[in-house]
Amino acid sequence: MDIDVRGPRFGAAVTTVVLAAVLVTGNPWLLAWQTLAFALGAAGGVGRPPYGVLFRRVVRPRLGPPTAFEAPEPPRFAQAVGLVFAGLGLVGYALGPEWLGLAATGAALAAAFLNAVFGYCLGCEMFLLVRRLTVRAG
User: Fold this and answer.
1) How far apart are CA 51 and CA 31, in angstroms?
2) Is the dihedral of CA 51, 57, 58, 63 positive or negative?
3) pTM over the 0.90 mark
4) Rounded to 5 degrees, what are φ and ψ at 72?
5) Which is nearest to 86 in space by CA: 105, 100, 106, 107?
6) How do residues 1-36 score in pLDDT, each as one tens digit?
7) Nearest to 8 by CA among 101, 134, 133, 118
8) What is the C-alpha to C-alpha distance for residues 25 and 31, in angstroms, rounded to an integer?
9) Which string of DSSP letters, residue by residue, matches 15-60?
10) Among the listed residues 45, 110, 116, the one whose alpha carbon sits nearest the alpha carbon of residue 80
11) Mean pLDDT of the chain, nearest integer
12) How far is Cα 11 from Cα 14, in angstroms, rounded to an integer?
């Protein structure tokens, strides 16, 4: 079943704010929260993280009906990619080196920002590229 494209973009917007706050404050607990959100999205789809629930229950009822849909697999893969980067960032902030925390969090922030502002899901594009490469190889 396809999903409303506005949901992942909303999640990306909230994620952008959270990750920017992590970079400004260096707060590993805030990054742990975002890592959990990515884990829920990777495991259960984009409707499972708190931002997906917020979109579904509070934001979407106030919007008009969706006009664009997408397959759920690419955004779910993007959540898994975000999980990897947030996890690396968490390791960097908690155990060191600090540059790892900054770099990994910055990379996740850049990807979330691209999706939130321009509708360009870097993780989704990675999913499609991996799919094309595995189809050709198989």
Assistant:
1) 15
2) positive
3) yes
4) -75, -20
5) 105
6) 899 999 999 999 999 999 999 999 999 999 999 999
7) 118
8) 10
9) HHHHHHHHHHH--HHHHHHHHHHHHHHHHH-TTSSHHHHHIIIIIG
10) 45
11) 96
12) 5
Please count the residues of the chain: 138
- State which amino acid sits at residue 21: A
62 CB-side CA count, 13 A: 5
Contact 107, 85 (CB under 8 A): yes
Share of the chain above pLDDT 70, in %: 99
Q: Among the listed ranges 58-62, 103-107, 133-137, which one has the minimum average pLDDT value?
A: 133-137
Nearest to 77 by CA among 129, 5, 19, 20: 129
Q: How far apart are CA 58 and CA 61, in angstroms?
A: 6
> What secondary structure letter does DSSP report for 68?
-
Tokens linked to 35: 């890592």
Do residues 34 and 18 lie in contact, with contact meaning Cβ atoms separated by under 8 Å?
A: yes
Q: DSSP of 85-115, one letter per residue? A: HHHHHHHHHHHS-HHHHHHHHHHHHHHHHHH
The answer, yes or no, to whether residue 138 has pLDDT greater than 70, is no
